[in-house]
Amino acid sequence: MNHLNVIIVEDNEDDLLLILLALKKAGYEPNYTQVQTRTGLEAALQDKHWQVVISDHSMPTFSAPEALETLQKSGRKLPFIIASGTIDEEFAATIIENGADDYINKNDLSGLVPAVKRVLAK
Predict the structure, then answer these.
(1) Quick one: fold of 2-121?
(2) Please, what is the end-to-end C-alpha distance for the chain in angstroms?
(3) Is the per-residue pLDDT at 46 higher than 80?
(4) pLDDT cut 70: percent of the chain above it
(5) Average pLDDT, stretch 77-96?
(6) How far is CA 81 from CA 9, 108, in A?
(7) How, if at all, do strands 28-35 and 102-105 pair?
(8) Rounded Cα distance, 59 and 36, in Å
(9) Residue closest to 112 by CA, chosen among 14, 16, 19
(10) All residues at 6 or more sequence positions from 84 whose CB lies less than 8 Å from its CB, including other chains
(11) Domain boundaries, the chain
(12) Dihedral of the CA atoms 11, 17, 18, 21 (nearest 10)?
């Protein structure tokens, strides 16, 4: 098992479990924290052991662009992957131009592990 230290920005418990299951099936042993707010992400980023951030796009009080901005302002250089079923390719391209490392469709998590491997290999 490969250990993976991941911050998951997600408000839906079922989606969180699906992300964790996809990682586990691929041989990762995720050590994770789930956050749903800017304050929660800021607190999580204080810990130095994280390897990647996986973020839902749209939550009631927080979004992927806000999470990316929070990460960038923290000074941490962590890979940032958006996992969402609600954004189109144009928006995905825009947020990648703004600093996100990858986008995967949450309705088809088969792209999650290849995305994680790509960003960790950088």
Answers:
(1) Rossmann fold (3.40.50)
(2) 21
(3) yes
(4) 100
(5) 89
(6) 10, 14
(7) unpaired
(8) 8
(9) 19
(10) 56, 57, 58, 64, 103, 105, 106
(11) 2-121
(12) 150
